[in-house]
Amino acid sequence: MKIYTKTGDQGTTGLYGGKRVSKAELQIETYGTVDELNSWLGLLASYEVLKEEVSFLHSLQSELFNIGSYLASNPDKKLKLPDLNDALITQMENKMDEFQDKLPELTFFILPGGSRESSECHVARTVCRRAERQVVALGAQMEVNPFIVQFLNRLSDFLFVLSRKIINDQGKEEIAWKPSK
């Protein structure tokens, strides 16, 4: 099977369910951003400092694929889609609580950075927030499963705490934001 189909050469793409739409549609931008986020999680999973979290990161990536299938579907058709795993939200919350129990109390705003791995975790967090905003905007145009917003909201929180865990595990200092006077 060839990867290229040439059907998108005129600036359209097919939704799951057969409808063709412009590649500039918010729906396409939204699931494209979820795909971008998924790629960032894949990068994070490749880092040695996160070796204990690889399996969980892969489960989050799989859920992002499930979410992508919802976002890439023709809203005019009832289609068989994968189940969404709401238990992952509780698992993220539990992991955040576990991580935070071992982290110093956060008493200041931090600048994204401190190490390559932590910085890339912050990039993933900001891509997640963008995806969340796009899903909310898409929800004004079509029905969107409310789980998706909840999942992305919790995932961005998880990525923030994970970035702090990375810095702590690397024995590095978080960079405090010092506002201009």
Please give a structural write-up.
This protein is mainly α and 181 residues long. It has a domain of 111 residues: Cobalamin adenosyltransferase-like (Hypothetical Protein Ta1238, Chain: A), CATH 1.20.1200. The protein has 5 helices and 4 strands, in the order ββαααβααβ. A two-stranded antiparallel ribbon has the order 1-2. It has a two-stranded antiparallel sheet with strand order 3-4. β1 and β2 form a beta hairpin. The longest helix has 24 residues. The mean pLDDT is 92.
Secondary structure layout:
Elements: E1 12-14, E2 20-22, H1 26-45, H2 54-71, H3 87-101, E3 110-111, H4 116-139, H5 146-169, E4 175-176
Helix pairs in contact: 1-2, 1-4, 3-5, 4-5
Q: How many helices does DSSP assign?
A: 5
Mean pLDDT: 92
CATH class of the domain at 23-72 and 111-171: Mainly Alpha
- The Rg value, from CA coordinates, equals 18 Å
In short:
The protein is mostly helical.
What key phrases describe this protein's structure?
elongated, 5 helices, 6% strand, mainly alpha, two-stranded antiparallel ribbon, Hypothetical Protein Ta1238, Chain: A, single chain, 181 residues, 4 strands, two-stranded antiparallel sheet
